[in-house]
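Task: fold both queries, return tokens.
Query 1:
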Amino acid sequence: MDTNSENNLDTRGVPIIGLTSEEVRERIDKGLTNHTDISTQKTVGQIVKSNLLTYFNLIFLILTVLLCIVGSFRNLTFLPVIIGNTVIGIFQELRAKKTLDKMSMLNAPHSIVVRDGEQQQIQSEELVKDDIIILSAGNQICADATVLSGSISVNEALLTGESDEIKKKSGDRLMSGSFVVSGQCYAKLDKVGNESYISQLTAQAKAMGDGEQSEMIRYINKLVKWVGIIIIPVGIILFCQAYIMNGETFKKSVVSMVAAVLGMIPEGLYLLTTVALALSTIRLAKKQVLLHDMKSIETLARVDVLCVDKTGTITEPGMQVTELVISGRCGDTEMDKRAFAHLLADYSAVIEDNNATMEAIRAYVAKNEIEKGSRTLLKTQPFTSANKYSKVSFVEGDYMLGAPEFIMKDRYEEISEEIEEYQSKGYRVLLMAEQSGSSAMADTENAADTDKSGQQAPGVKGAADMASSRAGMVSPIGYIVLSNPIRENAESTFTYFKEQGVAIKVISGDNPATVSEVAKRAGIDGAENYVDASTLASEKDITEAVDKYTVFGRVTPKQKQLIVRALQKQKHTVAMTGDGVNDILAMKDADCSIAMASGSEAAAQAAQTVLLDSDFGRMPYVVFEGRQVVNNIQRSASLFLVKNIFSLLMAIFSAIFAITYPLEPSQISLISMFTIGLPGFLLALEPNRNRIEGNFMVNVMLKALPAGLTDVLSVGALVICGQVFNLPSEDIATAGTMLLAVVGFMIIIKISHPFNKMKYGVLLINIIGLLFCGLFLGRLFAIESISNICFLLMVVFAFAAESMFRYLTLFVEKLSSFFGDEKNRRKLRRKIRKYNIFK
């Protein structure tokens, strides 16, 4: 909006000055700004704290102190890795935050404020208490306010859960967090910043917890939690057993206990997840994709149903008037295209709507230099998503503009043939009709003698009486034919989703036949299957319809929300794209929401993901990023779990057979570095477009379990044989380390299929790194020369480990396949019920 306005008048025609520059400065000095300290994003301090002050870092500190006490300094080799993990985690999160903060500034909410008598557009957080702002359709209310003049319809569903549009007029309160559906008003800010209603709600939400997390993060946190609980008693048992029962020295007992505990901690897994998400966020930012919530990366990757709006998603955001057509049912013999255009100019000049449709009409009027007529305004009724039309009452007549079906109602068949000609070509058609004895005129009891500014209109005394005598009939006048060009990359984008098995549902407020035609031209599969949502009277109807239809027309905002919920009840992961206030309810309920920055500000602030360049063609790249993150973390996480499974089971094995834990911390660190940490991070960077299937933790465990069991069985057998042959514990530890390395590379090979140059390179780098450390840094990592018999045992168990790993993998895969089959699961449940197994 222009910074200088010719006239800032309220609805009474009184000039609005707003605060002066000096008054603004005074309020800024007192801290009465709309800036809030409450944020859903981490601050720099929180990022540093969350990476540094962790439970596992405390455990590592305790282990470090214990090793220093006993003088086992070479076993502190895990420290550089832990410090490196912490530093890298902080650096990557700060880097991602910096990138997102820059982009968030570009997408920050703005407000039109009146100061010193002039209109200015500023960021909403720069507003101060007592500022006067102008609110119109599409704006999100940024602070608690009171309406000074004008009237708007607001939706408070994000605050109260009620989706009804509430009319607000002079003197009414406005709650921050709600959004404007229609109309325009001046409002004075009463509570700003941390005092506003939305800030208090946000504070309560943060106090209750971090909210829902992604499946991947949730399972990783559960794993970390249970490991954190288990390691304390296991560590105490192993120390007591070694020191008291086995008569080991204090140093040896501490070292063996530390090795067991160190092996059970998935120290790099959380870092891997954090870094992978941060890098993905930065890559998306470079593609003009802003993430309000990192969870959406994973959710988008799991989406199997994508709900899209027509306007701004399939088509370009702007509309244009293609043609004005006089209706064959028009009873006004003097009405021609010229007269119709003048009526349209009068209508668009006084109606308060500023949506895309009305902007297109105003642009048409301005482009063709159509002059306004001399009609005298009585009252306006803005467009609403529920009515799907607007009304203007002039002294000369009452007029309606909007969806033909909703204006004509039962008499729609009279004009349907005239409209279908245009709808079949994908045009959007609006009807202009005259209404005699309209409800709008009936409402003029209190305000019929006022014009738009609220003052008495000259020569209209008794207009309400004149109107009330009219005969109550809707007469079609003509049609406004509008077109939306389809986005250039729409067809290729929808083809991509079809190939990926993602179903598309087009949900629009437009006529279903028009939407269907546009969807066909965009290449959406099943676009010929459409339904008029106004015929869906109940939630049951909607639930049945989501299975049968691809295109939904004449959908209300509440129905959009119900369609999303119906799909979710059928166990679908649903993403919703939109650009208008009518999409917000559905976007908030969807598993993932995507907004176009060119749409309403309220939609962009409500969405988890914002396409800053409003290019829907970015969606395949966003999905690809999500799949890469989840698939690669899932694959790399299995490497970390191999070590955790082995260490836990080996600790149990040691306790049962009353033996001292056979490995040292430095040996665990060596294996972790070259068979888990480094390959895990390198493999996490590889492009991966595969669709995500199954449960995250189940998938990870199925990959890790065979290798973990192989490690335990082979190393356990080696330890038993070593005791039988009275081999030195140092020899057994070295041979066990080599066995773990062999099995570690087996699982790297397994999860790397199919191989490419990058994966061969990862494998080769880690083998060379391990050999180098073993040969040249052997003393640091407790790698000793071993006897011939110990070497022979290691070779035998290495070959045995290969066969064991192969057969355990086959067994686990078959078991997974059996329980993954729904028919087998049903049989098992029947047997459980039949034999009362758990009773």
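Query 1 returned. Query 2:
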Amino acid sequence: MSVLTRDEAQTRARLLDVHHYAVELDFTTGDDTFDSATTIRFTARTPGDTFVELKPAALRSATLDGAPLDPEALTENRLPLTGLTEGEHELRIDASMRYSRTGEGMHRFTDPTDDESYVYTQLFMEDVQRVFAAFDQPDLKAVFELTVTAPEGWTVLANSVTEQQEDGRWKAAPTPLLSTYFVAVAAGPWHSVRTEHAGLPFGIHCRRSLAPYLDADADELLDVTKALYDRYHEKFTEPYPFDSYDQAFVPEFNAGAMENPGLVTFRDEFVFRSAVTDTERQTRAMVIAHEMAHMWFGDLVTLRWWDDIWLNESFAEYMGYQTLNEACSDRFPDTWIDFGVTRKAWGSDADQRPSTHPVAPDPDAVPDTASALLNFDGISYAKGASALRQLVAWLGEKDFLAGINTHFRRHRFGNATLADFIDNLASATDRDVHGWAEQWLRTTGVDTLTPRLTGEGDRAGLAVDRDGARPHRIAVEIYDRDASAALVLRERRELDVPQQEPVELPGPRPALVVLNGEDLTYAKVRFDGTSLETALRSLSRIPDALTRAVVWNALRDMVRDGELEPVAYLETALAHLPEESELAVVQGVLGFARTQIADRFVPAEDRPAALATINAIARDLLRRTEDGDAPGLRLTAVRTLIDSATTPDKIASWLDEGTVFGGPELDPELRWRILARLAVLGATDETAIEAEVARDPSASGQEGAARCRASLPTPEAKAAAWSAMFASDDLSNYLFTATAHGFWQPEQSDLTRPYVTRFYEDAPALATRRGPAIAEAAGRYAFPAHAIDEDSLTTGRTRLTQPDLTPALHRKLIDQLDDLARSLRVRSGN
């Protein structure tokens, strides 16, 4: 397939002005393909040649201004349009297109619960070409009119309001100007809950088999959506620009969600069919907030080329957390705690790998769509959001929003660049926003800030040493101990780094100094000697939850950088986590302890002791929640006990009894979690897995079974799982991921050792054959992450030099091998 280069896109944008697409889709032609007819009206500004993109199963016909084009001229994904004259043109394409099983293009899913089928689009980057012919680049916006023929009993959703016609077809109202990758269709026998808000139709939709679970949460989902919609209208002067707001929870979705104008698609795991914590509900609400922010930043004003994708994602990430904090504070008191514990670490980790890139990469670094796809990572989302939060702290929210609203007004329904964005922010302030952007958005890496206390007695001074080059506005928190040895905040003050000179700290030498106490900047923070000792001994006594999150993140970074022994982190967690009241902190610390420290950072011989410590923490939390007042904390403890079990007896008894003593009852998620751990421990078999599938035949049940089968510690089970992943193309994206999750287990390293080299032999062909989504899944989940030794590292690095790696797989291997090298350094103490 030919990827689109930036130069080609700029050339085509100079030549063409695209006005209108009429797209007719027919989903009644079979289970493998659908029909797609497209009429494109456009103007050629000058005579010239160009091409239109499509990836058909069969190109039946093509005409330009009524004259037939040769279907055989289609080369890979490009149909040439030669000899264009200046003026108006009409292109007609009639094709048969393939359904996808990998979440790209037009994905088709049949629900194993009731055998009902659903289709939906995911057209990001280059995947519109899998559904209809298009001039596929973001700066050739046009009006879209869609008509869909669907089976009887289906409902068709689209970017605009749809109506069923007398002939049974569905017609969507014409859209405003949209980029091609925003076009959306979701069709099937949806279960829908509809309402109206602010004069617009709102709806939430899911598969019929999930209807009871959507109905149970419908009030929460719609209340959050309405509150966010109202808050955005208080912040933004441009009104919501589309004619409806639908949210469809769709199966086997690759991302968390997609910001299609008027029809946001979400992974349907957000329709909770088992118990979840309040933090998980908050995450769902934040994703709703994130995607709604895109209606303005991304959909109303769209990037011109993919080097500015961070503008979409960083803005929506920042605005999602901030606006949810403002609009739903009664339900979700402080979303920035969860951001600091989970999302920020994602960005920081990515920024310390060889594949790092600036938040706003140089245009030359994104020469084509293949390279652009690699930048959807923690840097474009979390680091960028952290940078914007620091910008707001430095600039002030009033001026920030004034600049944003100028940006929307100047570029509504058009395209804009980083330069436009910075110019519009600069128009609202006297501060040097251009200089800030160069220092923050065009550089890579994470600065490190360390406090240095000077002086003695009652006149101590504080200096902040900076390893890095960015300016930071931070909150410094100074703590003393009271008579009961509790930590008491003496003062919180704002400080600009670098400093002109140390600041005075009247009073005795503090017990604890925390830099970045409100988590307003993006940097690693360290401690002076006294503060580190205090943090390790008294972390749970810090009164503010966000500050505790900052301290936990600092300890996490110190472990990763080899400055704190992993065992010391576990001992700190054992001492303080049972007293922690903030669920996001508990989940973040336990997640790092379980998946990084126990599975990767401690040597294999020390892993049982690490798991024992994690189990002890979970048991303490379980005892603390016996009164039932903290169900989310108790659920977290139960999940941790299951995942960290080293013997099967206790969790097997829970499965037999259908409950944990004192609660909770085992729902499907917990049952599959227990069965997966029993499979790893060799305490279950295929018969038990089949029995559980009979009990839960849902799509989630099928994924649970795939994971369990791949987790069984037998040569036959591993061979079957490997063949399913790499020798066959039958697995959907979700079943592939579930199988990969089960395959590699630290407890089974001897059994899976032969597959380490096989991964490097088989993954490149798989990635080439099945495309970027499966390449990403293979690199992330099927990689031998637990084979932590020099031989595995050498094998992987040698494979990186070979030319047959697709860009998506190559990028994932760079990241995975860097993480593997870090694990080896932490284990060796270097």
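Both queries returned. Flag for query 2: The chain has a mean pLDDT of 96.
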